Known about the structure:
Layout: H1 33-53, H2 61-86, H3 98-122, H4 128-155
Helix pairs in contact: 1-2, 1-4, 2-3, 3-4
Amino acid sequence: xxxxxxxxxxxxxxxxxxxxxxxxxxxxxxxxxxxxxxxxxxxxxxxxxxxxxxxxxxxxxxxxxxxxxxxxxxxxxxxxxxxxxxxxxxxxxxxxxxxxxxxxxxxxxxxxxxxxxxxxxxxxxxxxxxxxxxxxxxxxxxxxxxxxxxxxxxxxxxxxxxxxx
Length: 165
């Protein structure tokens, strides 16, 4: 009677980086597509706000105050979202659907920044700083529309269905 003995040996090697695995900060997020998009949105909204805020000759005070309020509000909101992902806060507050929350902020932000940019472009009166502010507002609108598209694909994309219920 012959017996065969089979011995298996498993070796597991784990390497982790503090920026992508479990650490306090997720600096690697800024290098992703969504992270770069958020950084670009924050920068374009900041430049748009500063161009209009520092412009010397406003032709219509109420129109440019509206532009300032809209750009500053969404600048702060998207900066909070960026910091939330860098500090990994979305995993510490699981009761909020962050993807849907971001999608709604992007949708409202795109509409309001687009309206504010149109108003600023129409009321600029040829003042170059006001024109530059409205151009950066349109750039921010385009970046927000890209975020809506990518967020929509994640939020409302194809959902797996189960045949066995």
